[in-house]
Design brief:
The protein is of the alpha/beta class and 383 residues long. The chain folds into two domains: 13-252, Type I PLP-dependent aspartate aminotransferase-like (Major domain) (Aspartate Aminotransferase, domain 2, 3-Layer(aba) Sandwich), CATH 3.40.640; 254-382, Aspartate Aminotransferase, domain 1. The chain has 14 helices and twelve strands. The protein has helices spanning 13-22, 31-44, 55-65, 83-89, 109-114, 135-145, 204-211, 217-221, 241-252, 254-277, 304-316, 332-337, 344-352, 364-382; strands at 48-52, 73-77, 94-98, 120-123, 148-152, 160-162, 168-170, 177-181, 194-198, 281-282, 298-301, 353-355. The strands form three sheets. Strands 1-9-8-5-4-2-3 form a seven-stranded mixed β-sheet, with helices on both faces. A hairpin with a 5-residue loop joins β6 and β7 (168-170). The structure holds pyridoxal-5'-phosphate. The site of pyridoxal-5'-phosphate has 14 residues, from α3 and α4.
Amino acid sequence: MIPFNKPFIVGNELKYIEEAVKSGKISGDGIFTKKCHTFFEEKFGFQKALLTTSCTDALEMAAILCDIQPGDEVIVPSYTFVSSANAFVLRGAKIVFVDSYPDNPNIDPAEIEKHITEKTKVIVPVHYAGVACDMEKIMALAKKHNLFVVEDAAQAIDSYYTFSDGTKKALGSIGDFAAFSFHETKNIICGEGGMLVINNPEYNVRAEIIREKGTNRSAFFRGEVNKYGWVDLGSSFLPSEILSAFLYAQLENLGTIQEKRIRIWKEYYNSLLTLQEKGCITLPDIPAFATNNAHMFYIICRNYEERSNLIQFLKTKEIHPVFHYLSLNKSDFFLKDNSPIDIPNSDHFTDCLLRLPFYYELEEAEQKNINSLIHEYYSLLEK
Ligand SMILES: *Cc1c(COP(=O)(O)O)cnc(C)c1O
């Protein structure tokens, strides 16, 4: 059986967990959490990194930092994971769904502009498959209309955007805030985990407070105040040292992990290219301003029926691809209080996009098998 995803260990994960336990501190913000923060800040130029228990939590912190009030509007792509929207709904925001490009699941900046109103407060670009949204255009819109930008960078570790003047910046370092995920399905994992990035230092203190249950405990531990108490909104957003220890071991091997994933990605791409040339499927397109972090490999089928049949065909051969993201504007939750809206490109990806098995330990022979079965499916279909 070839699963869709498989968690993995590459280096000192278990050794570091043991070290954390033996150090006598397994609650949050110990040595390993600090090592992770430093790693991210130095490697990717993040002004401040704060580990959280999930990307969802990091998005919820960002919503608090943007000071979302009931009735504020937040622009989110319809083709995304629920958390990109839910984090803002929790604070009373009205979500305004915007479509993807026709040929790329990322949010289309031309569509964003049409949906900006007096009430708009935040734009949430989701870097789908770790491929950058057009951040130059999005940042320009945000500046023009005085909006926050919260990057949903859940899938976007070690991926970059190049501005038209040639400046290259890591995804997550461009918006006001960014949220990453270390869930076991992402490139770098610790089971459940995430990170909030703060790029404007004015928000550093408040972010620490929100993460520590609304208290100034972080400042207290640094000796900046002589007692700590309840000073703001907050919750418990920091992960245990056990998770940070696992995560740090993965970060030490980021280069190895990424090299392997890029090799897997290219193998899929090269092997399936002839099917694209025949018009059977469409392969991912990486815009010139973006890099490829090999977070996932997807194909886009011609229609829903062909995709369903391909899934069935692969399942009979013990291979488990997955599709995802029912357009959020079609969700039960949204339709409870809103009338249906038409977001066609998002629906197209909902119906036709298929993610192939992709994980660090995927073996060459397994991948060859998957590729040849996809070829077989289309040659049977074309007969
Ligand atoms: C995985 C994912 C999330 C949620 O991440 P968690 O760490 O599981 O909370 C949010 N947004 C996107 C785009 C994701 O892919």
